[in-house]
Amino acid sequence: MSTPTTAPVLDIRDLRVHFGTRDQVEVVHGLDLQIAPGEVVAVVGESGSGKSVTALSVIGLLPENAHASGSITLNGRELLGLSAGELRRVRGAQIALISQDPVASLNPVFTIGFQVVEAVRAHDRSISAAAARGRAIELLELVEIPEPARRMKQYPHELSGGQCQRIGIAMALAADPQLLIADEPTTALDVTVQAEVLDVLARLGRREGRAILLITHDMGVVAELADRVAVMRDGELVEQGSVREVLLSPAGAYTKQLLDAVPRIGERETINAAVATEQPPVLDIADLEVTYGNRLRGLFHAVNGVSLQVRQGEILGLVGESGSGKSTIGRAIIGAAPVSGGSITVEGVDMLTATRAVRRDTRRRIGVVFQNPALSLNPRYTVRQSVEEPLQAIRGLRGSELNDRVDALLDSVGLLGRASRYSHELSGGQKQRVAIARGVALDPALLIADEPTSALDVSVQAQVLDVFRELQERLNFACVFISHDLAVIDELCDSVAVLRKGSLVESGSRAQVLQHPSDDYTRRLLAAAPVPDPDVQQERRAARLAGI
Question: How buried is 300 (Cβ within 10 angstroms: 0-12 exposed, 13-18 middle, 19+ buried)?
Fold first, then answer.
């Protein structure tokens, strides 16, 4: 393993983190980690391995019932033991966090411009309004936001997930920090936008000399961006080395297990599950139009004349760039998007013309797994209560029948032992598994799964995909599976529809679309799909930067 020769920006020695006040539980066990100027160090591991807790320890944002010991120095200054006021002056100015969930980190009631300007002024109250606005536009240009002056007037809900992530990076750079902590910065991004964000982060690190601590479960991101890799398991550092050493010649069995769990396009057998094509489709979308805005502010056509069908037992994968309309179609199906044309039929019921009572009853036959489990779960409910709620409210289950059903659901997603925990006590991946259990609780005829594995590390993702497939085969529901991860689509789906700027550019069987694409756009998506090989990823990045 190569060790940085220059003095580290971040130096972590014997870090230990305990949770609890009486019976303390140690969740990080004696971690040592250093990051040099201009270096990107990736910390990887399963959900709950301690990687995010380590990042929170560095930035001083551990919950009240947690305590960190050991040493964390930033350019030689000890951070552990600093007062709350001293930590506030360090955060943002010297250390900045790029959060896992850019949409949740932005305030929905304020414009993008207001929020970026406030981030600038938070570190320099003497700056004039005009200078702060100029700096905000400069930051948006730095992270390659198109038409930054126009974007300043927009609200977060008017931007795609990838654009919101770049806004988050711009705000993190407001005070020119020395250390960036990027916690799953590309989790919810499609492959092409992910590549753009990684280019931004690479430039910020290598060209501008910032140290970057990258927390991720995506081995393709590690292969492209990181210089060194630290592998954590159950709070311990089990392997550390250069990106080539760890990804191409892993020494530890656990690291090999993580890499073996990474899905790769083309590895699944080409035989799809049989779908009864003679039966009427469970979901029938014809010439769907979804339009936002008004004539005064301007109209935005999010979905343009899309037609899709999904039959019982079929999983349809919706793919496309951020802002392509795939999540909008999912929201339109459940009545959460403004449909301006076309039709949506579920089990023979026209969801646009049926009576309110009929629509309500039909929607009870539609399960949903949202992209953001942190926002979709009630923070006042335990894991068990979150899964119990729809079974009690809609099915009227009580007593042992309810308990048995909930136990079976939690066991199927690997959370039976965490039934009494609240959402804030779960990792991002664990929250997503709760959302999946809740989504299939009512044995739906149709399931809308919007990025259901985006927050999961590779090994848990593999387990959840197995669970998802087993549940789908047993319950035989039709499924619209929305994902930016083409390898996951290849692993799970029977058919694929490719969207671009709200229009359907290609659709067909999984093998046809992913192995023999007919459209150039689909081919570009496939070429951008990350793989856990640093040589391949660096070659691709060089080609992108050269404009090839």
Answer: exposed
Asked if 223 and 508 count as a contact pair (C-beta separation under 8 A), the reply is: no
We report the CATH number of the domain holding residue 319 as 3.40.50.300
- Is residue 172 within 8 Å of residue 181, measured between CB atoms? no
Residues 258 and 300 in one domain: no
User: 248: domain range?
Assistant: 1-94+178-262
pTM for this structure? 0.76
Residue 257 has pLDDT above 60, yes or no: yes
Could you give the CA distance from residue 481 to residue 493 in angstroms, rounded to a whole number? 8
Last residue of a domain, one of 208, 237, 262: 262
Q: Which whole number is the average pLDDT over 59-74?
A: 93
User: Mean pLDDT, to the nearest integer, of 189-194?
Assistant: 72
Average pLDDT of the segment spanning 350-370: 93
Residue 546, pLDDT above cutoff 70: no
Token pair listed for 379: 């923070």
Counted domains in the chain: 3
Could you tell me if 496 and 513 are in contact, meaning their C-beta atoms sit under 8 angstroms apart? yes
> Looking at residue 47, what is its pLDDT?
74
Mean pLDDT (the chain, rounded): 87
Give the pLDDT score at 1. Answer: 42
What number of CA atoms fall less than 13 Å from residue 169's CA on the CB side? 29
Is 6 among the domain residues?
yes
Residues 6+ apart with CB under 8 A from 3: 34
Residue 406 forms part of a structural domain:
no
CA distance 49 to 58: 16
Tell me if 192 sits within 8 A of 500, measured CB to CB. no
